[in-house]
Amino acid sequence: MFTPLRLAILATSAIALPALAAGPLQVESKVLAEQKTRAPDGTVRVALAPVRRVVPGDRVTFILAYRNTGTQPIGNVVLDNPVPKGIAYRAPAPTSAAPEVSVDGRTYGALASLRVATATGTTRAATADDVTHVRWRLARPITAGAQGQLAFEAVLR
Questions:
Q1: CA 139: distance to chain centroid?
Q2: Can you tell me the distance from the alpha carbon of 60 to that of 49, in angstroms, rounded to the nearest whole number?
């Protein structure tokens, strides 16, 4: 039997949130920043590390790690993450499924399909800077003991 679940998650750019308790689906949200180091051969390596200090223009990655700690599959899972103020969505992380995005927290879809109202009463095509929420609908139930992660890239405004 599958248990339907809709979960909204808020991650901030300054801390990693603990796993959400009370149920078999455990979700941990963390924010990592790009750290660049120069190798002896002159190449630059980019790695993700816990956020210590970020300034406008720094790239960050929001990661939602989930795990089914129960004994039954969990189906119909939707993970919804508001994009914090001061953060601009850029793209799904390279290792993640692409999320649906929203510019108002109500209507979700591919970025190319969304429109934003303008001050003159018309609408324009939405851009990544307009995204206020990202969400993933997991296509398959999460089996007992299974885990995974979803992520998106953003930049500090």
A1: 17
A2: 9
Domain ranges of the chain: 5-30+63-156
CB atoms within 10 A of CB 13: 17
> Taking a C-beta distance cutoff of 8 angstroms, is the pair 148, 68 a contact?
no
Say if CB 67 and CB 146 are below 8 A apart: yes
Report CA Rg, the chain.
Answer: 17
What are the CA-CA distances from residue 85 to residues 5, 47, 64, 154 (Å)?
26, 25, 18, 12
Please state, in angstroms and as integers, the Cα–Cα distance from residue 33 to each residue in 27, 60, 63, 139, 155, following that order.
20, 4, 11, 29, 9
Q: What's the pLDDT tens digit per position in 19-52?
A: 444 589 999 999 999 888 999 999 999 889 998 8
Reduced to 3 states (helix: H, G, I; strand: E, B; else coil), residue 148 is strand
User: In the block, which residue shows the tokens 């660049």?
Assistant: 36
Q: Are 101 and 131 in contact (CB under 8 A)?
A: yes
pLDDT at residue number 23: 81
CA atoms within 13 A on the CB side of 43: 3
